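Title: Request for sanity check on DMT family transporter prediction

Description:
We are preparing a figure and want to confirm that the structure record we downloaded matches what your pipeline produces today. Could someone re-run it with the sequence below and paste the raw structure tokens into this thread? We only need the token string, no images.
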Amino acid sequence: MKTWLFLAVAIVSEVIATSSLKASDGFTRLGPSLLTGAGYVLAFYMLSLTLRQIPVGVAYALWSGVGIVLVSIVGWVLYGQKLDAPAMIGMGLIIAGVLVMNLMSKSVAH
């Protein structure tokens, strides 16, 4: 169970870091720039802890897939970025893939 918490923290940290990267305006704003660096360091550290129990391909697929969806939502909410129908369908397929991996794959440590 702790492994899944590590993965969740890695995902959230990466989403915060990526969202802050946009706000850093090319690293010209100190606060968002520092948050970007700290977020990525924490994300990769927590991902490394996750890899003790979950195979690297599975962990990375979950980390990147969920991160893509969450960053897209943050971009929509905070930055007013538009999500058209193909983008929403694509994110739905990513979520479906994450669910299939978690619910049906024997590769995922439960």
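Thanks, this matches our download. The radius of gyration is 15 Å.
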